[in-house]
Amino acid sequence: MSERLNYASKALTPDLSAAFELALADARDGDLAPVQHVIDGGPVAEGEIFTWEDPAAAPGRVVTEAHAATPDVVGRAVAAARAARKGWRALTGAERVEHLRCSQREFDERKVEIAGVISAETGKSRLEALGEAEEVVDLVKTYADQVEQSPESFATRMNTADPGETNTDLLRPYGAFGVIGPFNFPAALCVNMSAAALLAGNTVVLKPSAKAPRSGALIGEVLAKHVPAGVLNVVQGHAYVGQALAESDVDGIAFTGSAGVGWDLLRNLAAGPYAKPVLAEMGGKNVAVVGRTADLEAAAEGIARSAFGLSGQKCSACSRVVVHSAVHDDLVDRIAARVAEMSLAAPEDPGAFLGPVIDGVAVARFERAAELAKKDGRINAGGARPQGLEGHFVQPTLVTDLPLGHELTREELFLPFVTVTCVDSFQEALDEANATNYGLSAGVFSREQQEIDDFLDQIDAGVVYVNRRSGATTGAWPGIQSFCGWKASGSSGKGGLGPWYLQGFMREQSRTLPVS
Ligand code: NAD
């Protein structure tokens, strides 16, 4: 695949589209063996088999079978990662980059295959799945480039108070990291955390989501193949496998997932004799603020793309709009018109803009939210399950007239569901925008420079966009935007994809040595 995609891409060449369809069919019907763990460089087929079904089909179409790790399997994977720490950290940054560049090349060669597996397991549209496979490559590249630019392990020569001494400050790896990934970017986010941990000099035990085990296994297999045995291990399974990993002898955890799980991990790992690092990137309730002078066509497009792309299952999805009353009705009509044009379909349909949600639990969450919206507000578009589609499909839904502070405007739903709140001034809009515990991404649409400046100064979010038609709150890309969650959305104050992420996987050591 020579064509380069990102999350703002709107079309594919016919060749790439056809190649994707073959890869999707292979992933669905390829009669693949159950997914195994990887420990110390080799496959391990232990533990009961669990299954994952295609969310874009009637119940019963199993796309993946996988072995669920037992406590013993987790223990062995962690022991392998701990044993490999010394050798891996002894390499220079440049040597580690060489290993990871091999993975980068293989990811590049296998992008369409990876996209097919992602799409089979999550129901992602072809543009979203191929975009994710492309991001996998760019994530490794971005972090490898950063290490190349700091060849001496981020070492800083310090001042000296004694002519007989030299003082150096450096960043050193923690040791072995447990890496726990979510379902919605099942390849890219496992690669994001694992590649950063590895390039920083840590070894890894990766636990992908049980809702996309083959996606995690595929990228885990590639990463493991190009590093020494034990440096990258993979264990598969449900929440309890992540829990066992977090409670094990790892030196730190990198987690991407929901805020409830992430903050529990942080509290639990702080409760031992000393706090281990937990780099947690979590959910969002991302807002688009629309001022009275905004270009409403651009706002409607940016909001609709961010609210409904990937069926609202991006951590950066726009799930709230706060708009000035002077343009409220006009904006709502324009968003509703875009919803009416959206194609909701399975990924084999080349026109699909959004696909299914991930499982029956998400559908039940949608049905409850729609009921609540009907009772306490007004549904302007969607609000039901579509006719004639088998699988976990729900309509893109636009809701207005909810009372200020309503739970649908505060809690993350992770669905194609957006609320619009009407206010009478830009300052009120900013206050309402900040009135959630989350602080991941946010966008503003305005033609007034003062409003844009006020937004940038006051908004509590780590990823912000101004007048962005291609996505009001979504579309961050490695090396272009960083992806930092504030408040309940992140624990470290530094984001993946950006210039400070790698350093989170290292701790500082000051070295004072005699002049020889
Ligand atoms: P989740 O929290 O349910 O699961 C994430 C991972 O944690 C899975 O591998 C799961 O098996 C594991 N897990 C669950 N309970 C655990 C426990 N008690 N101990 C250890 N591990 C446990 O999240 P999800 O549904 O897979 O993903 C969606 C969530 O992730 C949303 O909230 C979304 O906003 C968030 N997310 C955030 C970012 C970001 O960068 N900020 C990116 C993607 C997704």
Description:
This protein has 15 helices and 21 strands. It has 516 residues and is an alpha/beta fold. Strand 7, helix 7 and strand 8 form a beta-alpha-beta unit. Helix 5 crosses helix 6 and helix 11 packs across helix 12. The longest helix is centred in the first third of the chain and has 24 residues. Bound molecules: nicotinamide-adenine-dinucleotide. Nicotinamide-adenine-dinucleotide binds next to helix 9 and helix 10. Nicotinamide-adenine-dinucleotide (NAD) binds next to helix 9 and helix 10.
Topology (elements, then pairings):
Layout: H1 14-29, E1 37-39, E2 42-44, E3 49-53, E4 62-67, H2 71-83, H3 85-90, H4 93-109, H5 111-122, H6 126-149, E5 156-157, E6 165-173, E7 176-180, H7 188-199, E8 203-207, H8 213-225, E9 232-234, H9 239-246, E10 252-256, H10 259-269, E11 278-281, E12 286-290, H11 296-308, E13 318-324, H12 328-341, H13 360-376, E14 378-381, E15 397-400, E16 417-423, H14 426-433, E17 438-439, E18 441-445, H15 449-458, E19 463-466, E20 486-487, E21 506-514
Parallel strand pairs: 7-8, 7-10, 8-9, 10-11, 12-13, 12-18, 13-16, 15-16, 18-19
Antiparallel strand pairs: 1-2, 3-4, 5-6, 6-21, 14-15, 17-20
Helix pairs in contact: 1-5, 4-6, 4-8, 5-6, 5-8, 6-7, 11-12
The structure holds nicotinamide-adenine-dinucleotide.
Residues 180-185, 189, 207, 209-210, 238-239, 242-243, 246, 256-258, 261, 265, 281-284, 315, 412, 414, 440, 483, 485, 489 line the site of nicotinamide-adenine-dinucleotide.
